Amino acid sequence: MSALDAATHEPFRVLDLASAAMEQDFLSLPGYVALPIAPELAVVEGSYAGKKLTLRAHAFAAQGVRVGRVARIDGPGSWILNAVVFPDERHSTPILGIELLVFRERMHLIVADLFPLRDADAGVMDDLGPLFDEVGDEPEMPRWATRIFSRRPVFRKPKSNAMLSEGARAVRLVSERWTAMARAATPERPDAAAASRARRDDYVTAHAEDEPANPFLGKAFGAEIGKRLVDEVLFPAAAFR
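Structure (tokenized):
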């Protein structure tokens, strides 16, 4: 990172550190292995509102993990993190979903959730979600969003510009819980695993059909690349067929 890049990133250091710690957790999972991403999707240059943006993405698998992927978008005053991790065919660990949106150096949205794939985990976020009630308002969820969120997600539009640290805290609390659950997970019975797969597939389908980032990605990186980013990187439905 050049001196200029470092200066540009200084406001986001707390987010960089939280993101790096999350990825270190992933790297420490037994059986971690990087998965290939098409070169033209792994690093993508674009622009939005006249500002240059760079997207970098990588994917991985691990013991109990079918596919996980992390995408970062950086640009002047912008910092976006999007991460999702799916269990493999035999496990029912909740789906980890994280999204932080920073534009004009202001935190616009904090999303951090564990989507349960079995009834026993329905309350997995019940103690974490309320920790962020004072951070900002919860946007009204469209009906389709009930297919991709737990009953108590961290889903907030911050009240002020001084909320970068709250975004970092959400990443760490939720990703640490997910990592602990992933490490402790054991294979499910075939019938239970099949039910979890059905919930997982519905989650992927809901994103493919209604992902709200689609218009942004299309404008920033072009319609074709934007669609491929959703279909092949962000929510790769083909990986589960």
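Confidence is low (pLDDT under 50) at residues 1-8. Strands lie at 33-35, 43-48, 51-62, 65-75, 78-87, 95-103, 106-115, 136-137, 154-158.
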